[in-house]
Design goal:
The chain has about 375 residues and is mainly beta. The chain is built from 4 helices and 24 strands. The strands form 6 sheets. It has a 4-stranded antiparallel β-sheet with strand order 1-24-23-22.
Length: about 375
């Protein structure tokens, strides 16, 4: 017969092992989302406690997002909080980006046909395949015959896209047309090339500027052999005359273009301009509302990188098509684009609190 005392000690030991295996220590970021929301103003609310890279649908009723950096696309209804998997009907080598076109179809940037669990981001900087997923047929992504690097840009007004070519030194644009329900690209043209510039310059498309789509907002990165991305500016290129405008012009800072407002007067950016110089260019970022008038003026909307230094930042902000809400990622210091959950920033509540306070910024 086994010794009851030995059995009791063994059971306790097993419980300790199970607790260690399934309960992360208290400083793990997954446990901070709900607690941090208690400290923030009422214009913040949690949409999800998992997922990355949000994008609004064409109605502003749903938010698309990925379950992880390389994964599947999900959709959440903002009012009901109902979640559904969008890309579960077909096999793929990992989806990196999903963006909603003006007709409700999805533009997908996908990895190769195989997925390598030991190197999940293998295809991120070697070429992503552009596919279109029809909203009425979620089982058959249709190839567009182009490769991109990082995120493409989609127009909110017309069936037009832009993407950065592999190598991130050139940008192309094209229009999407359908023939017997099958999409293809027409009017493709090279919009911008930095092939003759420094080897450590990179480009990334972001948004066509509404309401007339005459300008493409993009990010211009530069760095060195260790990191080609640690400086960045938000820029725009006129699609008719090729004129480039630097909208942030802070050379010793990180200023990446993100979502855009439907009136085209403002864009959202990720920036570290609030950090002391010694902490800049280290991706210690928060989200700002940038005025697109050339002044460089920007209003900070969150302070996660200061409030939770080394653990949390706010990033990947996208504005709905009515300019009422911003979906923002809980970004964790675990790599570019990585995060764990999405919150909603209510712009009407924010402006009301700002007006009541009587002075500009009410960012927490």
């Amino acid at each position: 017969m086994k010794d009851p005392r030995s059995m009791s000690m063994m059971n306790k030991f097993i419980k300790v092992l199970l607790f260690a295996a399934f309960c992360p220590p208290p400083d793990i970021p997954a446990q901070t989302i709900e607690s941090l929301m208690k400290e923030l103003p009422p214009y913040f609310s949690i949409l999800t406690t998992w997922g990355v890279r949000p994008d609004w649908d064409e109605t502003s009723e749903n938010v698309y997002f990925l379950n992880k950096i390389v994964g599947d696309v999900f959709k959440i209804n903002v009012k009901t909080r109902e979640v559904s998997c969008v890309t579960g009907g077909f096999y793929h080598g990992g989806i990196f980006r999903a963006q909603c076109l003006t007709n409700g179809d999805l533009l997908l940037a996908m990895g190769g046909d195989t997925f390598d669990a030991k190197n999940p981001e293998r295809d991120r900087h070697t070429g992503l395949q552009l596919h279109l997923l029809r909203k009425n047929d979620l089982k058959h992504p249709l190839p567009l015959g182009e490769m991109c690097e990082e995120g493409p840009a989609v127009s909110k007004q017309q069936m037009k896209i832009a993407w950065t070519l592999v190598g991130q030194r050139e940008i192309c644009t094209a229009d999407i047309v359908y023939e017997d329900g099958v999409p293809r690209l027409i009017n493709k043209r090279l919009l911008l090339s930095y092939q003759d510039s420094s080897a450590y310059v990179r480009l990334e498309t972001q948004d066509f500027r509404p309401p007339d789509d005459r300008e493409l907002i993009f990010t211009h990165y530069w760095g060195d052999e260790r990191d080609a991305y640690h400086h960045s500016q938000t820029c725009g290129i006129d699609l008719q005359n090729g004129k480039i405008t630097d909208y942030t012009h802070i050379p010793d800072s990180y200023n990446e273009a993100e979502g855009i407002f439907p009136d085209g007067r403002y864009a959202m950016i990720e920036s570290d301009r609030h950090q002391p110089m010694a902490l800049r260019n280290q991706y210690k970022l928060d989200v700002y509302k940038l005025k697109l008038d050339g002044s460089g003026k920007a209003e900070r909307l969150a302070d996660f990188s200061i409030r939770y230094p080394g653990v949390l930042r706010s990033d990947n902000p996208v504005v709905d098509r009515q300019g009422k809400f911003i979906a923002v990622q809980f970004g964790f210091m675990a790599g570019a684009g990585d995060g764990r959950g999405i919150f909603l920033f209510d712009l009407d509540k924010y402006e009301a609190m700002k007006a009541k306070a009587g002075t500009g910024d009410t960012a927490p």
